[in-house]
Amino acid sequence: MDSIFITGTAGSGKSLLTSRLCQWYKDNNFFPAIVNLDPAVSNLPYEVDVDIRNYINVNEIMEEYDLGPNGAIIMANDIIATKINEIQDEIDEINPDYLLIDTPGQIELFAYRASGPFIISNLESENKMAVFLMDGVLLSNPTNFVSLSLLSISINLRLNIPQINTITKRDLIIEKLEKIMNWTNISYLDDDLFFEKSPEYSLLSLDIMKYIRKTGIMQEIIPVSNITSSGMIELFASISRILNQGEEVKY
Ligand SMILES: Nc1nc2c(ncn2[C@@H]2O[C@H](COP(=O)(O)OP(=O)(O)OP(=O)(O)O)[C@@H](O)[C@H]2O)c(=O)[nH]1
Ligand SMILES: [Mg+2]
Predict the structure, then answer these.
(1) Closest CA to 27 of 220, 222, 229, 166
(2) Structure pTM?
(3) 228 CA from centroid of ligand 1 (Å)
């Protein structure tokens, strides 16, 4: 079994992409299963196979510990790690080819606290990887692009598994897409940063991007749309490439 963790900023399209990936694997005669790790979600655009909400109830946590919604969500995210055995048992019973893991809306609660890295390192799976979603709608200027690239690297550092970067909601940014993709090129980025309001932040953005380029971590960014499916073939190819590499180099 290979596991694919879908991560990204709140509202970037994680849950919808999870359902699209699941459908693709089904259409190609594989056996996928979905784990929902978001204890606070109310509606999901797919049928869940393993659901953290069966073990963690945010409303009950609010009442029992006299917490407000934010405190309860933080606590709920921390409790995820304690449910690893139950989740693993359910997954083992299903025994899918591909396990798609939809992560909580608040990426910082999953990645920067203990539970996300704990679940990732303890889940039993042949290969593990992450798909990080950058919300295309947030990429309105080059400084935002650099900030989200930095977030991607930061998440990669915390989760410590191979990661693919995507720009989501491609259908909503058709006219801007070429410009956004050009920002991976330092000279284009430099030109566009010139029009940013603050020279200080422009220089900082440029320095950060130069470093990011050097690491090679953001070499490939795949624009996708969950609505029109454009870019999905490239995404599947990239996922397969990483998982197949893992056949030789175990992570
Ligand atoms: N136009 C467009 N809308 C999208 C796309 N992907 C997701 N959406 C919409 O964006 C909203 C958020 O999508 P979700 O899949 O719930 O995003 P999420 O990252 O799981 O959200 P949280 O778990 O709440 O952080 C929904 O209204 C989706 O229909 C896309 O590719 N194009
Ligand atoms: Mg979601």
Answers:
(1) 229
(2) 0.94
(3) 13
